[in-house]
Amino acid sequence: MVHSLTVGVFASNCYLLAPEETGPTLVIDPGDEAPRIAATLRENRLKPALYLLTHGHMDHVSGLAELAEKWPAPIALHPADARWAFTDVNAMPPYYEIPRAPRAIDRDLAEGQTWTDLGLRYQVLGTPGHSPGSVSFYFPDLHILFPGDVLFAGAVGRTDLPGGHAPTLWNSLQKLMQLPPDTVVYPGHGPATTLAQERNSNPYLQSPRWSHFPTPRRG
């Protein structure tokens, strides 16, 4: 079961993925408004068992430390983003101050890993380009994908932030397009979509020419 919350001034998506209607849950990208995420957890009788971060940008990690204090659980993030995610590099005043660092990053994410948490099997796909350590979480048994800010409905992630690189993002998008077309995509911003829909209609998947020009997009 996937619960979706849109949080913060940049309307980032936080997801709660639980194998049952109540009980332990995976928390994906707790980007802001920790009290509202906490209220949703309590209302649905869910308890964080793991915090999964698709990347380190402030609008995807700023609620992490507060939630992890209330519900201690392992935190997973790619090292390439962990090294700057909780520093002044990641502040964007007046919208975001430096994200408060959690106690520790317990799991270093990397391309090719396969994990099973709460009985849910998923693969870590290295999808840099929006940030150096951006990853996507693919749950093959559930036919769902959490790409963070790499892919959106009708758009792609911006590459003009520090560490962004448009040709690298293009390569990451091509990797995602190798997954089954019926895969449901839960992006870091905006509505859910499918890989088939994006393959057929997303203008940024039709040609690599844009990839040489880091034009800002969502996220």
Counting H and I runs of at least 4 residues, what is the number of helices?
Answer: 6
String of helices and strands: EEEHEHHEHEEEEEEEHEEH
Oligomeric form: single chain
Which range best describes the helical content: under 10%, 10-25%, 25-40%, 40-55%, 55-70% or over 70%?
10-25%
CATH topology: Metallo-beta-lactamase, Chain A
Largest sheet: 6 strands, mixed
Q: Mean pLDDT, rounded to whole units?
A: 93
CATH architecture: 4-Layer Sandwich
For the biggest β-sheet, the strand order reads: 1-2-3-4-5-6
- The CATH homologous superfamily corresponds to Ribonuclease Z/Hydroxyacylglutathione hydrolase-like
- Rg, Å, rounded: 16 Å
Keyword list:
alpha/beta, about 30% strand, disordered C terminus, single chain, six-stranded mixed beta sheet, Metallo-beta-lactamase, Chain A, 6 helices, globular, about 220 residues
Model description:
- The protein is an alpha/beta fold and 219 residues long.
- The protein has a single domain (2-212), classed as Ribonuclease Z/Hydroxyacylglutathione hydrolase-like (Metallo-beta-lactamase, Chain A, 4-Layer Sandwich), CATH 3.60.15.10.
- 20% of the residues lie in helices and 28% in strands.
- The protein is built from six helices and 14 strands.
- It has helices spanning 34-43, 58-61, 64-70, 79-82, 166-176, 195-201, and strands spanning 2-7, 12-17, 23-28, 46-52, 75-77, 107-108, 114-117, 120-126, 135-139, 144-148, 151-152, 155-156, 184-187, 193-194.
- A six-stranded mixed sheet has the order 1-2-3-4-5-6. A six-stranded mixed sheet has the order 7-8-9-10-13-14. The protein has a two-stranded antiparallel sheet with strand order 11-12.
- Strand 5 (75-77), helix 4 and strand 6 (107-108) form a beta-alpha-beta unit.
- The longest helix is centred in the C-terminal third of the chain and has 11 residues, at 166-176.
- The protein is globular and about 45 Å long.
- It starts with a strand and ends in an 18-residue tail after the last helix.
- The model is unreliable at 212-217 (pLDDT under 50).
